[in-house]
Design a protein that fits this description.
mainly alpha, two-stranded antiparallel ribbon, 2 strands, 82% helix
């Protein structure tokens, strides 16, 4: 039986952040070449399956682990170690039931949902990803338990395994499927008529249109396989390393409460958290529904306008008229891969803050409450502002670099990434603040703000995206407004509840100055190298990113944007802080 591993807030956040960076890097190495392989149109089916899958996934991988983490942390803090163990055992049974129901529900909704969003063949991918809900729910009991013990390592390792399997098998199997089917068509197509995937096709464009839904399904099947293997890893880890307590600790702990009482506690804590995740992701589903249906409407009523705007892109892609909405939707999805990069990393700050802030809130430790909140917000800004501003400044070359076979879509995707990049800080701080509100017992506030923000976004989607002149470019505008409203309400509420007064200069102003310098220098470096010296754009893009990053670090040091508290919470943080203090760069 291994002794409990204790990790500070930023140590735990660091482990999850490293895992998330690896996961997002793996995800990019998966989704970017996948998009280049199956094209924007095929990626539209892949992205469409995620839209209906995400609400149930969010409950299993966000809502449920948070509930277990919170309860385990509280019981450990109170010395009720056997209760903490019992919560894990009870949650496994409960979450298995939730996962089974979620999988069946997704299978039932696959066909009607696909017809509702004007993409009937999307059901193939939805059915393929449905079993993932069961595996993820089972994983959430393990992840939440270890997170409650402030041991983020099992969560991080399982995330990397899950993503790695998805990438390696996903790209391999999809490539084999795609090339085999295309070769089969080219070898056996006689007389201009070919029967494929249950329909007759008359040319290669029609054949590809028929194949894309199945290619997307092959790719997304490896998401399910990755989650299954991630669950197997957690089972093996628990068997080999135990559940974090020595026998002596358990013997000296009070007897556990009855299972029924613990089950009730889990449900009471999980219900509002899961409801928050559900509302947010149902709003995302409704958002996706309005994006796709209003985009289809914009194309229907304004085909001439759409072709005037994107005619060259559509022609270069070889997209049939009836598939133009899915092509544009897929292009938007390719930008979301970049937009979601930093928020996924900063989400780990909120998850890691929950047990630390929850325990500090119980002890009424005002200093630790303030330190945890400020550290989470400051690190969010230190990551989100330079990344977002940099993406906005170099949107066109970045997209051209990442999607070379889909370079014809750059006129569509560049304005999307510019807007998403400028408001990256909104997307990156909302979830951590939500998690911190949950940690101090105010799960009700995020539910209300999500409802308000979602209503605003859906109304704006309906108005903006349905306009053929604006179409998909209304999506980032409505998203930014939604998150601005949510952030304003949630942050104000968190500060009111905790009675914390933030150092806004340290958290917001200093990172903003450094990030703005980063973006300007990156843009200037690209203009100089690509347009004046005429260095190949790929080299110019990478060079400009490095220059922007270097200037960011320099300016951050000059304005003393790194806080001593943040550094001291890292592994060997006191020694690092002393070294940095000698150079007078700590705030």
């Amino acid at each position: 039986m291994e002794e409990r591993k204790k990790q500070s807030f930023l140590t735990g956040a660091g482990i999850l952040a490293i895992a998330s960076i690896l996961v997002k890097l793996i995800g990019a190495l998966y989704k970017i070449p996948l998009t280049n392989l199956i094209t924007m149109e095929g990626y539209g089916y892949f992205q469409g399956a995620y839209a209906i899958y995400n609400p149930l996934y969010a409950i299993s991988m966000a809502g449920l682990p948070i509930a277990v983490s919170k309860l385990v942390s509280q019981n450990v803090e109170a010395g009720r170690l056997r209760d903490a163990r019992a919560i894990f055992r009870v949650s496994r049974k409960l979450f298995f039931l939730v996962g089974a129901v979620g999988t069946v529900l997704l299978m039932i909704l696959a066909v009607p949902y696909s017809h509702m969003v004007k993409a009937p063949m999307n059901y193939v991918s939805v059915l393929t990803v449905a079993p993932c809900i069961l595996f993820c729910c089972m994983m959430s009991s393990f992840r939440g338990y270890y997170e409650g013990l402030k041991n983020m390592t099992p969560t991080g390792v399982s995330q990397v395994i899950e993503a790695g399997i998805k990438m390696v098998l996903g790209l391999a199997l999809t490539t084999v499927f795609f090339k085999h089917q295309l070769h089969k068509y080219q070898a056996n197509n006689v007389g201009g008529l070919y029967h494929a995937f249950g329909m007759d096709v008359h040319n290669e464009a029609e054949f590809l249109a028929a194949m894309y839904p199945y290619a997307a399904a092959v790719a997304i099947s490896c998401v399910t396989l990755g989650s299954m293997i991630g669950l197997i890893y957690l089972f093996i880890h628990a068997k080999r390393h135990g559940l974090g307590f020595t026998r002596e600790e358990l013997v000296n702990s009070p007897r556990p409460r009855p299972d029924a009482k613990l089950r009730g506690q889990i449900i009471r804590v999980a219900a509002p958290i899961a409801l928050t995740s559900l509302i947010l992701n149902l709003s995302n589903l409704i958002d996706d529904f309005t994006v796709r249906t209003r985009l289809a409407h914009a194309v229907d009523v304004g085909m001439d306008t759409i072709k005037h705007l994107y005619g060259a892109s559509i022609a270069a892609a070889g997209t049939l008229d009836e598939n133009i909405p899915n092509y544009i939707y897929g292009a938007h999805g390719s930008v979301l891969n970049l937009r979601n990069l930093i928020p996924t990393i900063t989400l780990t700050l909120g998850i890691s803050a929950i047990p630390v802030l929850s325990a500090a809130w119980q002890r009424k430790d005002k200093r630790e409450i303030k330190t945890t909140i400020e550290s989470a917000l400051r690190v969010c800004m230190l990551l989100a502002l330079p990344a977002g501003f940099g993406m906005a400044a170099l949107a066109e070359p970045i997209l051209s670099l990442l999607y070379p076979s889909e370079i014809h879509s750059v006129p569509i995707t560049t304005p999307l990434l510019v807007v998403y990049g400028m408001f990256m800080f909104l997307f990156s701080t909302t979830s951590p603040i939500t998690n911190m509100l949950q940690a101090v017992g105010r799960m009700d506030i995020p539910v209300k703000t999500i409802a308000i923000g979602s209503a605003i976004k859906i109304i704006m989607n309906f108005i903006l995206i349905g306009n053929p002149k604006i179409n998909i470019h209304g999506a980032p505008i409505s998203t930014a407004v939604m998150y601005a409203v949510m952030l304003a309400i949630n942050l104000t509420s968190l500060l009111r509840v905790t009675k914390v007064r933030l150092n806004f200069i340290s958290i917001f102003v200093k990172p903003f100055v450094a990030a703005a310098t980063c973006a300007v220098t990156a843009w200037g470096a690209y203009m100089l190298t690509a347009n004046v010296i005429h260095i190949p754009f790929k080299i110019a893009t990478v060079f400009s990113i490095l220059v922007g990053g270097a200037f960011y670090v320099i300016v951050l040091a000059l304005v003393k944007g790194i806080a001593k508290d943040d550094v001291e919470m890292l592994p060997k943080g006191e020694k690092i802080a002393k070294v940095l203090a000698k150079f007078k760069i700590l705030g």
